[in-house]
Amino acid sequence: MTDLTTTDLTTTAATHPTAVTETGTPLVKRGLADMLKGGVIMDVVTAEQARIAEDAGAIAVMALERVPADIRAQGGVARMSDPDLIDEITAAVSIPVMAKARIGHFVEAQVLQQLGVDYIDESEVLSPADYANHIDKHAFTVPFVCGATNLGEALRRITEGAAMIRSKGEAGTGDVSEATRHIRTIKREIARLVATLATDPAELYVAAKELQAPYQLVREVAERGSLPVVLFVAGGIATPADAAMMMQLGADGVFVGSGIFKSGDPAKRAAAIVKATALFSDPQVITDASRGLGEAMVGISVADVPAPHRLADRGW
Amino acid sequence: MSAPRVGVVALQGGVREHIELLASLGASPVPLRRPEELVGPDGLRVDAVVLPGGESSTIDRLLKLFGLGEPLRDAVAAAQPTHGTSAGLNQLAAAIEDPAPGQESFGVLDVTVRRNAFGRQVDSAETCVETVWGPAQVAFIRAPEVVSYGPSVTPVARLHDRLVAVTQGAITGIAFHPELTGETLFHRRLLESIRVSA
């Protein structure tokens, strides 16, 4: 075997005048999300949970101090996690690590980029830091994922630099109904743009006005028939069947928050959700994955969550 | 000659981009999730295979779970034209220097790879690599590298002193992503190798 010496990517390019190496481009930011497709991203609050998630086949972990169900139960202001916790989780696994910053809190995002997380979630699960502005995500090398409840919200986040979108659902409930509503809404609004382009493209100007999104981006979505970035689903997914349903509705992958580590047998449930997400259109696989998982998270019906406490309403 | 059928492992990761690139070059891509999609009663159902990028530890797990790993390994070992991108390179390798717990590779390409060798996502980059087949505009996303290789392996591209593409017989393994930039060089070569062997 021949041994080769090593140096890092940017240094080697810098010493070679003909090679232009660019980090943090839209393609590179969206590219990592492309590699996550068909997978499950799991919320973890300790290094031990992160290892369980990796062993179960998670494609990435979301490092945080409290899962949404606990944030909901305990109340108070929810903020970015302690850097020590994020470091511990990062050291524990080889898969990508994501972490959450508050909506609009660009300094929390600077800290997370400094820590070397692979993706930042500008998340409504934490308490917003700015009730008018989201983070200018173009200003960062690290990519961002943002939540959306409809197409207009998704396109505004992409305009600000989001490289991945997740529909919001209602986090910490174990009730999948809001996740269903949001992915269906986004898909329906995209289909409407495709139809508008086919019948009368001039009406796309009004569509852009109604969506409160830039015309060029609206036009691109109409031509592609999809968002220009990967679309995951989050919020309330608790079972293999929930995950497979989101995939059949057109999601590129799923986030599972409280649903795994608030259940009776997290390792088994995590592996079962991974399996059902990968072969989401095979009823036999989903049936097998649903057997003997023990207790699911108890959950709370979205209808029982008073409107001011609904997380999906955060973000604008 | 009818369009060559190229099986694309479709369990997780950047599958769609490979399928679109292959279709644009006139091939007939076939997503592979189940063993019966790869092998039928009359033998292999595809003329070549592509192992896309994604999370290599997850893909390895799913390959075993759905029984696709073993027939796929056998097909590649039997000199089927094969292309592995990033996580796909890891899957083909003889050894992974830093595997995730329980992660295994096929051992059909005589190289040792190191996962995430260029750092974390903030170090991911777009660049032009000089290959022995010409320049290629590609993206490195949490890319692996080849840290050592056996005598039957030919280096194809270095990003200066780091080996990032190799070939051995009918197998090509690359650490980066041509499918994200739309670079056709590697897929055209894969399709040409089918015509030559047919």
Spatial order of the strands forming the largest sheet of chain B? 2-1-5-6-14-13-12
Question: How would you describe the shape of chain A?
Answer: globular
Order of helices and strands of chain A: HEHEHEHHEHEEHEHHHEHEHHH
Give the termini distance of chain B in whole angstroms: 10 Å
Low-confidence sequence ranges of chain A: 1-8, 10-18
> Level of helix content of chain B?
25-40%
* Structural class determined from secondary elements of chain B: alpha/beta
**Percentage of residues in helical conformation of chain A:** 40-55%
Radius of gyration of chain B (CA) equals 15 Å
Would you report the number of β strands of chain B? 14
Largest sheet of chain A: 8 strands, parallel
Major beta sheet summary of chain B? 7 strands, mixed
Name the poorly predicted regions of chain B.
Answer: none
The largest chain-to-chain contact, stated as pair and per-chain residue counts, equals: A-B, 55 and 58 residues
Shape of chain B: globular
**Class by helix and strand content of chain A?**
alpha/beta
Radius of gyration of chain A (CA) equals 20 Å
- The largest sheet of chain A has its strands arranged as 8-7-6-5-4-3-2-9
Defining traits:
A: 316 residues, alpha/beta, 14 helices, 12% strand, disordered N terminus, B: 198 residues, Rossmann fold, three-stranded mixed beta sheet, 7 helices
Characterization of this structure:
The complex is a heterodimer of chains A (316) and B (198). Chain A has 316 residues and is an alpha/beta fold. Chain A has helices at residues 9-14, 26-36, 47-56, 68-74, 83-92, 106-115, 151-159, 177-199, 204-211, 215-224, 240-248, 258-261, 266-278, 283-290, and strands spanning 22-23, 40-44, 60-63, 97-102, 119-123, 144-148, 164-167, 230-233, 254-256. Chain A has an eight-stranded parallel beta sheet with strand order 8-7-6-5-4-3-2-9, with helices on both faces. Chain B has seven helices and 14 strands. Chain B has one domain: Rossmann fold (3-Layer(aba) Sandwich), CATH 3.40.50.880. The longest helix of chain B has 13 residues, at 185-197. At the A-B interface, helix 1, strand 1, helix 2, helix 3 and helix 13 of A face helix 1, helix 3, strand 9 and strand 11 of B.
